[in-house]
Amino acid sequence: MSVTGAGTVLVPGSVLADTVLERLTVTYAAAADPERAASMRAYMKDVAPFLGLTTPLRRALSRTVLEGTPRPDEADCTAIALRCWELPEREYQYFAVDYLRRHVRQCTSGFLPVARYLVSTVPWWDTVDALASHVVGGLVAADAKLVGDMDAWIVDEDMWVARTALLHQLRYKERTDTERLFAYCLRQSGHPDFFIRKAIGWCLREYAKTDPEAVRGFLAREKGRFAPLSVREALKNIGA
């Protein structure tokens, strides 16, 4: 276990993580752009400092960092992610999210506590949403027993954990558990925060690409329970 029940982070030893982090910090730091970093930090509401790397440049640098490295196991993924989260600049966390997206199939259900730690530590939509739909969603799809964890997360006091539960089925399409999706939306329908209301609309809008009539019918029955923002987002592509 890499994250204890008390929330203590235990970073496993990993030779691969040692190599990746050494390369990563040198390569990213050498390309830093302080002027762009300031504007990026302001755009992200000062959630963290930035190095000032654009997404295309950052991903090109990441390919250089990872060139010749072996496929990781779960301990490697855990160590790389947690060590990136220890670094202050946001681009290191973006690297970790991209890495986990690529290698989530190497991780078992035992990785879920690590994912929760990442979601709830230095949280903002830029990392939470990708972790929700690509990492947590992948873990739950691979192990149906984790559905119970999502049922707990949707009522969690941490808004970002609840948002993750809402969004974890975002890429499921026809595999979506519709009953659970709608129940989660109803459970958080009265939430006052923008990010939860937006997530409700987003997950419904995404599922509407698969079954628009189900979403229309759901909102016709329950529309009065949702904020206008959620309804607008849900119906954006399918109409009332």
Characterise the protein shown here.
This protein is mainly α and about 240 residues long. It is built from 13 helices and no strands. It has helices at about 15-30, 35-45, 55-65, 75-85, 90-105, 110-120, 125-140, 145-155, 160-165, 180-185, 195-210, 210-220, 230-235. Helix 5 (about 90-105) runs parallel beside helix 7 and helix 9 runs parallel beside helix 11. The longest helix is centred in the middle third of the chain and has 18 residues, at about 125-140. The protein is globular and about 55 Å long. The N and C termini lie far apart (about 45 Å).
In short:
By secondary structure, this protein is mainly α.
Q: Give me the Rg, rounded.
A: 19 Å
Count of strand segments: 0
Unreliable runs, pLDDT <50, ≥5 residues? none
State mean pLDDT (0 to 100 scale). 95
> Beta-strand percentage?
under 5%
Instruction: State the distance separating the first and last CA atoms.
Output: 47 Å
The largest β sheet comes out as: none
SSE blueprint:
Blueprint: H1 15-30, H2 34-43, H3 55-66, H4 74-86, H5 90-103, H6 112-120, H7 125-142, H8 147-153, H9 159-167, H10 178-187, H11 194-208, H12 212-222, H13 228-235
Features:
single chain; 240 residues; mainly alpha; globular
